[in-house]
Amino acid sequence: MSELLQFLFSGVTIGAVYALVALGFTIIYNASDVVNFAQGEFVMLGGMITWFAHAAGLPLPLAALIAIAATACLGVAMNKLMIEPARGAPVVSLIIITIGASIFIEGAAQLVFDKQIHSFPAFSGDAPIRVGGATILPQSLWVTGGAIAVFVGLWLFFTRTLLGRAVLATSNNRLAAQLVGINTTFVMTLSFALSAAIGALAGVLATPITLTSYGVGIGFALKGFAGAMLGGMGNPKGALVGGFAIGMIEALTAGYLSSQYKDAAAFVVILAVLFFLPQGLFGRTSTDRV
Amino acid sequence: MKTILATTALLTMGLSSAALAEIRLGASISATGPAAFLGDPEAKTLEMLVEALNAAGGINGEDVKLVMYDDGGDPNKARTFATRLVEDDEVVAIIGGTSTGTSMSILAIAEDAEIPFISLAGAIDIIDPVKPYTFKTPHTDRMACQKIFEDMKAQGYTKIGMISGTDGFGASMQAQCKSVVADYGIEIVADETYDPKDADMTAQLTKIRNAPGVQAVLNPGFGQGPSIVTRNYKQLDIGLPFYQSHGVASDGFIQLAGAEAAEGVRLPGTALLVADLLAEDDVQKPVVTAYKAAFEAKTGTPVGTFGGYAHDAFLILTDAIARAGSSEPAAIRDAIEATSGLAGTTGVYTFSSTDHLGLDLSAFRMLEIRGGKWTLVE
Fold it and tell me: Which ipTM did the prediction report?
């Protein structure tokens, strides 16, 4: 029993990180149908900037705020300098641009920062919490709480606010959105700023567990993307469930089958789900009028 | 016309004499990319040593010029750069190959061109079977396994669990350990793996803890993985003796894992980590202390085992060139092979025509982390 509980805790720890990264994908995807592959770099920047600010003597909360604000500004710059000039290009081209941005940010980070692995102290200490013979670190609860908070925030944003609906409208039909008076340029800028901020928040919360270095972005992006695809791209509920589901599958496979197969098991499940539900678990089915 | 010819002749003479007055060494290091963690201190070490050597008058009065490329950990790029070093830069010897993959690429080019090559990578395949022009400075992962199992045997452990990274380093060491473990009367009762990018390994560690009769745990791995495994080990309060590999033998590991979690962890490391603790008459003491002081003053970062590999490669090479009294590749090769009792940071090197690694198990010191510091076990 304590064994199962430990595997579940392990799954929560891994899954919360994936879910938080997956949530970052939703806003930009909802605004423009673009899967932003630089999302992992935002996570990396959140961790690295916080580490450097903290190492320079700033208190941790202030360092984290600076990291989130700086990454949001970088998200805006990425939109202004890379995505906006290519406005008329097809979605696939824009996705390729984000891959380029990802490589650029990774390269710049190793020059601006350094090539070592870093970490900063966990927010509530390292003493594990014991439940029924199993243990979980307090920081895992921070990441889980962060993922749920971001989920609630996004859900309210997309369903309850005019701005959130404007984002969805822009995604649906940019021209029509413009015709009814939505400032689509602003919507894009906003969505990049928010996505980058969520990514940086993920980095801040996860770094005491996962550690950080300039190269961690791509790993986060792939697992987060897998979580988002499993749950249904663009749906915050899907990102949350998908991320946690992958974490659980990995931990349970490692625990009960073999750790050799845990990544394979996760991807087999994703393939199976996408085979029967191509939109993911909670994705919206799109219909085109012809 | 005559003046032009004369000028050209003079220029040519000037150029050729300038070329004679310097010894051109080549290097292909992974200063960026996935192995940057290793390559970066290696590159900095080589730059620092060349500068210091030239300031002190070079080798036999000739300056050393280092042509260094960054292969980014990509074996194809390493091959290209090795070719360029041989054909365009006309170097007399090559240092490099941060990883086993890049070393294998450079090795093929260096052997063809008959240029001495000193690799900085771990795998035994680089020098076994012996190739005439290829040498290497780091101990092999098999030696690390043997050193660890020797210690386990001395402690009376017969059943152990292993949790290995699936990266090249972890997978290779896992295989090597499994091939020699039986020689020490030790049985592996749990054999788990993790991806180097994983955030949590408590599932694997729980499985190992529940394996019947397990007495100690070994974690061959490299990068951030072992730090997370060490934290999880503490989190689960497993309490069994815990061994890490030489892959994390740096102060950075203690920082990342946290002094509390790393308490009592044992691993085979080099003299470099415990420079202050070495006996006064230890042959490695002067070289280790000097390198540590110079590197830390120059870069402001603590020395690590990997920068030490580059230091030793450079030391072996310059020592050989000085003894050969010539910068002909064949003469350098013969002089390297004749190296005997040369104290480096990793160990004391004695090469022969059948041994191009030159180290034995005594190069490893069994270390234990106590109160956030390294201590010598022996």
Answer: 0.84
